[in-house]
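Predict structure. Chain length: 194.
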Amino acid sequence: MMLRLTAILGILLLTGCFEDDLPPPVARALTVDAIGYYCNMTITDHPGPKGQIHRAGGQKPLWFSSVRDAVAFTMLADEAKDVVAVYVHDMGGKRNWSTPGDGGWIEARSAWFVLDSRRRGGMGMAEAVPFADKAEATGFMARHGGNMVDWRGIPQDYILTAGEDQHHGPAGPQDGDHKTSGDMKHGAHKMHEG
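Prediction complete.
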């Protein structure tokens, strides 16, 4: 009996080790059915880069209408901590800001981000604009302003504080942008729950 229990325990331990070595899930295709985790809206209706988060054992990704919302999910204490992949649109190349499309997903934790640019993301908010290539991020800053950081350098207050006029830069909001206010720390949970 003891030998049988030891064997079962050994198999379970080995299985756990192999699960840790599994590659992360691949980015999913963005479709019109993708609904924002916080806003509960169709995310393809919003301009700018989007995000998708995959959780351990999850069958479907959580979708976000902006990269900023996806990053917020990883920072908020009340959200799940079993994230295995965070994908965002690479805004390099000739990607269209209004409709970034389905391709070009990159792992956010290896991306460069331009903060405080004059470009507005989903819901008309200041965005953390992701790039796979540092040189492309530099070119974007030359055209739209801002400053560059890596994943670890993204400040929590930039992501979690969403004031009305914060981070609009000298050009103000872009045409067609929506101005919203509130504090992401509180507003995001209310939108998701309600």
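Summary: Residues 25-193 form a domain with the Alpha-Beta Plaits fold (CATH 3.30.70.2060).
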